Amino acid sequence: MITTSARTTVFDIDGTLCFDGRTIDRRILAALADCERAGHQLVFASARPVRDLLPVLDGAFPAATLIGGNGSLVSVDGRVRARAAFEAGDLDRLLTEVERFRAGYLADGPWDYAYTGPADHPIRGRVDQGGLARRVELAELPAVVKFLVVDATDPAALAEAGRALGMTVNHHLDEAIIDFAPGTTNKWEALTSLGIDAYNAFGNDINDLDLLRNARHSVRVGAHPGLDGVARVTVAAEAEAVAAEISRLAAAPGR
């Protein structure tokens, strides 16, 4: 558990703060700094593992708490730990379905990863950008905290098979990827496990649903239809609009 203030603000990364898969616009960085100076505790919560959050943040906001793998990893004071991982039997059952649908995947351990998908898949550009980890065989990972399918013969059927196994499944139709997490793990559940229950949140995708739904003040970036009616505010998925909304939050008394 970490010490929190009521002025905690949680930010998704891709599609919320980062629009090119690699960097955060300087205007957004400046607004985030304003937020921190105004007394907000910053939390970055992403589908990325912590390893792949670090290059995007590029050393900024070292005091921030990081939630990775859609809640399966947390980093507090620079110490990364896995808080949820696939049970061996569950992973074996998922791999059976993966083989049935001839799927390629990215499997993340607490730090290293295994990859069997196409060499030219766009996800490769977002994996280990900082050269901080090793690509290993799946059996070499001490635990699997996140499993991302990047191609399959029938993605929708594979997603349903994962749900039938009791896993948290996010099928990102726009990117044609399926994100599997162990059990009921999600960003909001990880946040509450850290003792944070009063917070503001910015997000853009269906994996931010519970995070936005339970926030004191919630901002949807873009127009994902799965988040209709969930957030209090919607802003365009553009750096200028996001930076302006963060600055408004920083200036608002009591938020």
Walk me through what this model shows.
There is one protein chain. The chain is built from 7 helices and 13 strands. The strands form 2 sheets. Strands 5-4-3-2-1-11-12-13 form an 8-stranded mixed beta sheet, with helices on both faces. A 5-stranded antiparallel beta sheet has the order 7-6-8-10-9, covered by helices on one side. Helices cover 27% and strands 22% of the residues. The chain is globular. It is α/β, with parallel strands linked by helices. Mean pLDDT is 92; it is low at 1-5. A hairpin with a 4-residue loop joins strand 9 (168-172) and strand 10.
What is the alpha-carbon Rg in Å? Answer: 18 Å
In DSSP terms, counting alpha (H) and pi (I) runs of 4 or more, how many helices? 7
Described by strand count, sense and barrel closure, the largest sheet is: 8 strands, mixed
Structural shape: globular
Structure described in brief:
With 255 residues, the chain is an alpha/beta fold. The protein has seven helices and 13 strands.
Structure keywords:
eight-stranded mixed sheet, 255 residues, disordered N terminus, 27% helix, alpha/beta, globular, five-stranded antiparallel sheet
SSE order and pairing:
Blueprint: E1 8-11, H1 26-37, E2 41-45, H2 50-57, E3 65-68, E4 73-76, E5 79-82, H3 88-100, E6 104-108, E7 113-115, E8 146-151, H4 155-164, E9 168-172, E10 177-181, H5 187-193, E11 200-203, H6 209-213, E12 217-221, E13 233-235, H7 239-251
Parallel strand pairs: 1-2, 1-11, 2-3, 11-12, 12-13
Antiparallel strand pairs: 3-4, 4-5, 6-7, 6-8, 8-10, 9-10
Helix pairs in contact: 1-7
